[in-house]
């Protein structure tokens, strides 16, 4: 058995010397060589012509005359060309329509990687998406530049009023500048401050500005999605995302020798860092609901502070009221209950003193009473009481629950504005 490369047909006819098969008389091939696909490589070559057809048989195909006129292919080529152009035009039109419907609009840009590839100039999003909200709000956000520092703010009127934090402009003097999301800048000046509430108003020397839309901070709930805008660590035009983590989180903060600030804040886990201060906290509807103001950090110093998912914003209802006071009168009214308080020991804000003609006294409260709730919110100490009182506007009526000795009672207090 071999692989067949030197195969020989079995001998059926006399063989010539050397073992080669003898072809039949008149032919160098064996009888059925024309029908055998496996030719003997040692057989001599020969041209075998088919026998002439007998007269009256089927006619052979005519041989083309090389001198005969040839058929023109011009019409065929024109048809192919027109078909290609038509197909290309239809395909391009359909591609453009599908691209536009899919939310992408492309313009002429630098082509990389071959012809027909263009860089998108803009991307459209459904108005209900967070990307669309960010695009709408961003022009109303400004970066506030003061001597040696940077903060954030947002425009609240077309004629240039903007809200920021008091601690952003603290020590900045009367003049400063702001930069907009498009990279342009404008000078600004300080209008007024409310240090204990950490709100300040500045006036930008430019008109026709896009004012942000106000929301209702009393209508938000834990779990609502929010966006934080600003310039964290001097990275301008930054947007971060999170949820409302808690409401009425009371905080007392302040630097040595400076004012003590009180917050009944909106807590969020949106990433907020130094430089975000004064920027807006915005709902999924694109409405500002708070002013980013404070972060909680594990760092021991301000330079070590950073986002750990605990950020706090002043409710916009409170910030808007204070800002309106500053714009109208140059200063803000401070809401008071007409009493001073300390920790209650067993929980609550113990009143150390009560002003004789103040709101607390008018409601029947006395020194030594321990306030346990204000407007339904539990109180643990004096910080809770001051922060929650200042969240309300002067003239607001709030319900309080308190202990006097072993007895519990409740009262309605009409808050007032500080006369100082």
Automatic annotation (TrEMBL):
<dbReference type="InterPro" id="IPR001940">
    <property type="entry name" value="Peptidase_S1C"/>
</dbReference>
<feature type="domain" description="PDZ">
    <location>
        <begin position="326"/>
        <end position="381"/>
    </location>
</feature>
<keyword id="KW-0472">Membrane</keyword>
<comment type="similarity">
    <text>Belongs to the peptidase S1C family.</text>
</comment>
<keyword id="KW-0645">Protease</keyword>
<feature type="transmembrane region" description="Helical">
    <location>
        <begin position="76"/>
        <end position="100"/>
    </location>
</feature>
<keyword id="KW-0812">Transmembrane</keyword>
<dbReference type="InterPro" id="IPR036034">
    <property type="entry name" value="PDZ_sf"/>
</dbReference>
<keyword id="KW-1133">Transmembrane helix</keyword>
<dbReference type="Pfam" id="PF13365">
    <property type="entry name" value="Trypsin_2"/>
</dbReference>
<keyword id="KW-0378">Hydrolase</keyword>
<feature type="region of interest" description="Disordered">
    <location>
        <begin position="1"/>
        <end position="67"/>
    </location>
</feature>
<dbReference type="InterPro" id="IPR009003">
    <property type="entry name" value="Peptidase_S1_PA"/>
</dbReference>
<dbReference type="Pfam" id="PF13180">
    <property type="entry name" value="PDZ_2"/>
</dbReference>
<feature type="compositionally biased region" description="Low complexity">
    <location>
        <begin position="43"/>
        <end position="60"/>
    </location>
</feature>
<dbReference type="InterPro" id="IPR001478">
    <property type="entry name" value="PDZ"/>
</dbReference>
<protein>
    <recommendedName>
        <fullName>PDZ domain-containing protein</fullName>
    </recommendedName>
</protein>
